[in-house]
Amino acid sequence: MHCKTLTVALLLAFALEGYALTSEDSAIMKDVVMRLAPKCGGRRAEGPGPRRPELIDALDVNGDTNRLARILVELAQTNDAWYAEMAMWQLEKYGTSEQLPFLCSCATNPAVGNRAVRAVLRIEGVTSNSIAVAQSYFAITNSVTQIMDYNRSDLCEWLLKEVSTSPSIAYLKPACLTAAVDYAQNVSIMHKSLDEAICTADPTYQYSKRRLAVMRAAQNRCWNPLLTNYVTNTINELMAYPEADLPD
To answer: How far apart (Å, rounded) are the C-alpha atoms in residues 74 and 84?
Structure first.
């Protein structure tokens, strides 16, 4: 189906579903949908041309990010996977504190959890609440792909770096470490980079029973030989101490 036909079909779907928008916001929604439409033949839906302006600059909203974010929340709730993800991508940039309850509720959605959590972190920074939201995202075990697990590991590593290098939030490091170790032990398949990040954030972890338990749990989740070798070598190194002498 041609991209223009797809866009028209989606706009009709919004009209039928009765989204709670004013007539003025409905017009802006139509513009948003057109601008976020998928590319056809490797080009933008509206054809070739210069780089698209930022969404906030392209729409008739007078720079009102709150208004744009409210519209994006409505679009994010469509059943169309493309537009839901594109709306969340824009909410990463334009979401405000008004959208925090919605964004937090999306953290456990495998399709958009990464963008939702990153939006929460941008809006409120690293706090006990945003760490808890991230932890709920790390705990997802259904519909997990390698790219999703990579995104979660990357986010977890970023959090560890933030609490380790920013004195004002250093008090949150224990919570981040707990979230990271729990994720590494029970969910993650991206062990090497995350393991290194945990060791950097907490030097006592490198030679500990905690790390040995994580590596043992991770043995059956490695998805390539390099990770399998890394985990196996780490287990052997730790057991050589011997295990009973390792600190907790």
So the answer is: 9
Nearest to 180 by CA among 160, 166, 163: 160
Task: Summarize pLDDT for 44-71 with one digit per residue, the tens.
Answer: 445 555 566 888 888 878 888 889 999 9
Q: How many CA atoms lie within 13 A of 120 on its CB side?
A: 28
Q: Which neighbouring-strand residues pair with 43?
A: 40
CA dist 205 to 52, 171, 200, 201, 238, Å?
47, 18, 9, 9, 11
How far apart CA 175 and CA 156 sit, in angstroms, is: 12
Is residue 42 within 8 A of residue 81, CB to CB? The reply is no
* Tens of pLDDT, residues 139-158: 999 888 889 999 999 999 99
Q: What is the DSSP letter of 1?
A: -
Model confidence at 12: pLDDT above 80: no
Q: H or E segment at 89?
A: helix 81-94
| Distance from C-alpha of 214 to C-alpha of 64, rounded to nearest angstrom | 47
User: What's the rounded Cα separation, in Å, for the pair 58 and 80?
Assistant: 23
